[in-house]
Design a protein that fits this description.
This protein is an alpha+beta fold. Helix content is 25%, strand content 23%. Helix 9 packs across helix 10.
Length: 515
């Protein structure tokens, strides 16, 4: 078997005998190839992976990582030999909270994949369904706590509806009021689920009885699974300005939220917590636990969107109402957790919207954008990172995240640390290394998107060989790198040798992938 010899040296380096130091300062015996007192570590793990202090043999990919925890730039020398016919991917990851200056790096434009300008101004494509910013205000008003225990303990009252009933809904797209009819009613785990359809959208070629019946046949599974993972969308509370406590119905309202042409801006659906308030707080409130779904989509997209919007509804109740004000997620994390739910239920409906979100992330490309800013495609970026985290840490990690206090990256960091002491910083670096497109057969443990069967849910693998042609890389070196962002580029060998020196700014991690 071919052996790859590699040395990554932070100058000056102290050579040790028989051990090295990992990225958290722990001494590791026989785990890496780097003789150094710094955090550069050999990361290859797996059945086909063999390593010693001086060489690697095997067929899996090889990953070395380094994090500059100091207060100034660091020169990192990389020297590798016997690596003909190997791809080398280098990824800078900003693990800090501020923009950092990146010393110029040469980009070889002759290497594989179509490449985009790194600082391309990216705006979400109009055919990518999205919610308007005002609907993403998941905490529109402070809660007024009810102090009257007698009133609190009274049996809540709310309207009872039956199939065939008519109702007008305030809809926040186009004309405000839409006339609907209750076309289907189900009871799932003790909660009534109403399926309303806008009257002008009901009929042949739009949303008819057959389509409603097909959708309703999945509702029990979707609702049960989403609630199993995330919790109930409504229940008891002490806020007098919210609709009544208890087992409120879930209303799924199918309305026209935009034209059917795929290149005209529209929405797939939305949840707006304004509707959970009484009209005395918001006069336009529908006073219902309601999600709104566009009638123009096919059934797979529709079912996935229902799971997405239901997660928003659950987050509002479980986090803002129950955990308390200030724990409603920032928009990027709100969307990230909702896309993660689409991933969770994908095998139930034989439709995975998240795989296309992943393609959007690597094809736009969106590596340069701050994940937490909400300024780029939060669905593609958040969905790709969330899919990575679930495949590495499992469904229980996702459940933990949904109940961890905090509104932004702090919540992600705390949730990850329950499963991996490296927290968000390490996860971001390993996620960035996955831009190297690991195949399922050559994927080191802790990297890429492996298949996972967990808690009765099947998460499909994102095989690098399948998606490699979709990946686009930067054509130029960025002047700065945003927080939580990546700068990937490719290298090639000369005479089976690769040598290069990198300047690593403080707070930045670097991943070197050979495969």
């Amino acid at each position: 078997m071919r052996k790859i010899k590699a040395i990554l040296i932070l100058l000056p380096a102290l050579f040790l005998a028989g051990c090295c130091v990992d990225e958290y300062g722990n001494v590791v015996i026989g785990k890496c190839e780097i003789n150094t007192t710094t955090s550069a570590t050999f990361q290859c793990n797996g059945a086909s992976c063999g390593s010693s202090l001086s060489s690697y043999s095997g067929t899996n990919s090889n990953v070395w990582t380094y994090k500059n925890n100091g207060n100034s730039n660091v020169n990192l020398n990389v020297s590798m030999s016997n690596i003909s016919n190997k791809d080398i991917t280098i990824v800078y990851t900003n693990e800090g909270s501020s923009y950092v200056t990146i010393p110029p790096v040469s980009i070889d434009k002759t290497l594989k994949n179509e490449i985009y300008p790194y600082n391309i101004g990216y705006e979400e494509e109009t055919y990518e369904f999205r919610e308007p910013d005002f609907i993403r205000d998941f905490e529109p008003a402070e809660l007024i706590e009810e102090t009257d225990d007698l009133k609190l303990n009274q049996t809540p009252s709310y309207a009872v509806w039956y199939e065939g009933n008519k109702r007008n809904w305030n809809v926040y797209y186009g004309s405000l009021v839409r006339a609907t009819t209750l076309r289907k009613q189900l009871t799932v785990n003790g909660r009534t689920v109403n399926l309303w359809v806008e009257d002008s959208e009901y009929g042949s070629g739009k949303i008819d009885a057959a389509k409603i019946n097909d959708i309703s046949s999945y509702i029990s599974t979707i609702y049960t699974d989403v609630v199993k993972v995330a919790g109930e969308p409504w229940g008891t509370h002490r806020a007098s300005n919210l609709i009544a406590s208890g087992n409120q119905p879930l209303d799924i309202v199918f309305v026209d939220l935009g034209a059917r042409s795929p290149f005209i801006e529209t929405m797939a659906g939305y949840f707006w917590s304004l509707n959970n308030y009484k009209k005395s707080t918001y006069s336009d409130s529908n006073e219902a636990v309601a999600i709104f779904i566009n009638t123009c989509m096919d059934n797979g997209y529709t079912l996935s969107t229902i799971a997405h919007e239901l997660t928003h509804a659950i987050n509002f109740y479980q986090r803002f109402v129950l955990i308390g004000s200030g724990n409603g997620y920032k928009s990027f994390l709100e969307e990230m957790t909702a896309v993660m739910m689409q991933d969770v239920i994908s095998s139930r409906i034989s439709y995975n919207r998240v795989s296309s979100r992943y393609v959007s992330w690597i094809n736009a490309p969106l590596y340069h954008c701050d994940l937490s800013s909400g300024e780029c495609d939060v669905y593609a970026m958040g969905g790709s990172f969330g899919a990575f985290l679930m495949r590495q840490y499992g469904i229980d990690f996702y459940k933990t995240l949904l109940r961890t206090s905090g509104s932004s990256t702090d919540a992600i960091d705390k949730a990850i640390k329950i499963y991996d002491s490296g927290g968000l910083a390490k996860a971001l670096r390993h996620w960035g290394a996955s831009i190297a497109m690991f195949s399922s057969s050559q994927r080191p443990k802790g990297f890429g998107y492996p298949a996972r069967n967990d808690n009765g849910f099947n998460l499909e693998a994102f095989d690098g060989n399948t998606y490699r042609s979709s990946r686009k890389l930067p054509v130029s070196s960025p002047a700065t790198l945003a927080p939580n962002a990546h700068f990937p580029f490719l290298r090639k060998t000369t005479n089976n040798i690769y040598n290069e020196s990198f300047v690593v700014p403080k707070g930045v991690g670097i991943s070197i992938v050979v495969k």
